[in-house]
TrEMBL record:
Gene3D superfamilies: Rieske [2Fe-2S] iron-sulphur domain. Keywords: 2Fe-2S, Iron, Iron-sulfur, Metal-binding. InterPro entries: Rieske_2Fe-2S (IPR017941), Rieske_2Fe-2S_sf (IPR036922). This is Rieske domain-containing protein. The keyword Iron-sulfur applies. PROSITE patterns: RIESKE (PS51296).
Length: 94
C-alpha cells in the first residue's frame, strides 16, 4: 500500500486476503502503525482514528492510535498490532 494512501492524523481499513481487514493509521506525520481492527471487547470493527483516538462504534471503547492501548472501557485490552514496515513510498507487512 502506498504511504500516500494513509491520511495523516487518521487512517483507513484495508481489505486483506481471506475476508480479513487491517487498520492502517498515521497518528503523527510519518508514523505508521497497523492493527487488527477487531475490537477486543466483542469483536466489532473499530473506526479509523478521529481527533486523536480510535473508537469502537458498538459500545464506545477507545484506543490510542500510536500503540493500540485501550483508553476507555468496556474493552479491557488494546488492539493487536500487526508489524508494518515502510519501504520507500510503500508500506508492507513486516
Ligand atoms: S465491541 Fe467494541 S466496545 Fe464492545
Amino acid at each position: 500500500m502506498a504511504v500516500s494512501a494513509v491520511p495523516s492524523g487518521s487512517g483507513l481499513l484495508v481489505d486483506m486476503p481471506g475476508n480479513a481487514q487491517l487498520l492502517v493509521v498515521q497518528p503523527r506525520s510519518g508514523e505508521f502503525r497497523a492493527f487488527n481492527p477487531a475490537c477486543p471487547h466483542v469483536g466489532s470493527l473499530v473506526n479509523p482514528p478521529a481527533a486523536g483516538v480510535i473508537t469502537c462504534p458498538l459500545h464506545g471503547s477507545t484506543f490510542d492510535p500510536s500503540s493500540g492501548a485501550v483508553r476507555e472501557a468496556p474493552a479491557t485490552s488494546g488492539l493487536t498490532e500487526v508489524a508494518l514496515v515502510r519501504s520507500g513510498d510503500d508500506l508492507v507487512l513486516g
